Amino acid sequence: MFLFRLMNFLVGYVTITIRGEAPEKFINMAAARGIFLWDIARPGEQTMRANVRLSAVRPLRHIARRTRCGFHITRRAGLPFLWMRLARRKALAFGAVLFVLGLYFLSSFVWTIEVTGNSRVPRKEILSVASAAGLNRGVPKWRLDCPAVERALKANLPAISWAGVYVKGTKVTIEVVEKTIPEKKNQSPAHIVAIKAGVIKEVLVFSGHAAAKEGDTVVPGQILISGIIPPSEEQKPEQPGSETHSEQPAPRQPTYVHAAGIVRARVWYEGYGEALLAETGKRFTGHRVTRVCMKIKGREIILAGPQKIPFLHYQTETSVKKPPPWRNLHLPVELVISKYYEVENYRLVRNRAEARRLAGERALHAVQKQLPQGARIVHKQLDELIVKEPESLVRVKAFVESLEEIGTEQPFTPGEESQNQVPAPPSQP
């Protein structure tokens, strides 16, 4: 289709209007003689309109005499007619050619430089290194050596591991990838403590001393993995027949570490939801209209949109745009864009089963807001709350049991009372 339109534009075509008693005969005879007509339309009973190439206009005269129809040209389009118009306006043609050449010349320079991918390295520093390598605004694109700029960026900026320079039109994009610096691991003494109450399901210790085991009930703030590793009790065996006791060794000191590990526990949540048996209110219908006004010194001129809002009830959302100030001049002109959303009153009646289902969904949604990321629900239960007096709503309470990680780091200073919270190691028999 594109090639067909392009060919018609190059050779030129005209739109003809055919009038006569039998314009269909004119069209059929032209098609029989190999003359192609397209976009055929019939605006009247004895009138037809069609497009035909410029080279086929002369043969159509003979067909018009045979069918006793007449035709006249209503529109001319294509390169030959455009060339004829430009030939009559040489100054316009010269200006157009000059404009195209100027545009092509200006597009051969770099006018915009964009830097992407940097977070730690300042943009000014990247542009400074690129400028020293030959990348500046206004530089001709044929003088720009992109590989040299990339090498200069990697050589002069140690924080950059990779750099790429791309040219698209008059815009140059410098894309950099910064080196990933590993964060220093915190080695200060710390415990893993519980952030919420629950029953321990799993304890995985990476470093430290396990202070809780599977099946234990813990409360917030309780130590789960201690950063104090107590010394092991080693009893030296006594030699038979010895009457003198060797000198007692000095007691060994505990080891302080930064505790790390995973502690998963069963945690319970409660949520509440309710739903009305008969609900009334307002809701959006989905219909809206937009009005664009220009406000000049308190006077509004409607540029687009309806004069009168077609809705009986609606809500309005308005945004105001002002022209930027120029020096000390503030123009008293505002562009006001108002969006009107239609709303309607509704009344919805539910039976008790539908209300119970909706209240249960709302109760579970309330629990879902309390669950941390990564928590897995293992059990849920919905109970309807029954009251003595009948109500126009249904109340539901949700009980959810989840399996989640409850440990968090808590730094401490060696010698504090937190050391007393660590259970003593079992004595060896």
From TrEMBL:
Q: Where is this region: Disordered?
A: 231-254, 407-429
Protein name per UniProt: Similar to stage IV sporulation protein
> Do you know which Pfam families this protein is assigned to?
YqfD
Q: Which InterPro entries match?
A: YqfD
Question: What range does the record give for the signal peptide?
Answer: none
Q: Where are the transmembrane segments?
A: 91-113
Q: Which UniProt keywords apply?
A: Membrane, Transmembrane, Transmembrane helix
Q: Which NCBIfam families match?
A: spore_yqfD
Provide the organism lineage as a comma list: Bacteria, Bacillati, Bacillota, Clostridia, Eubacteriales
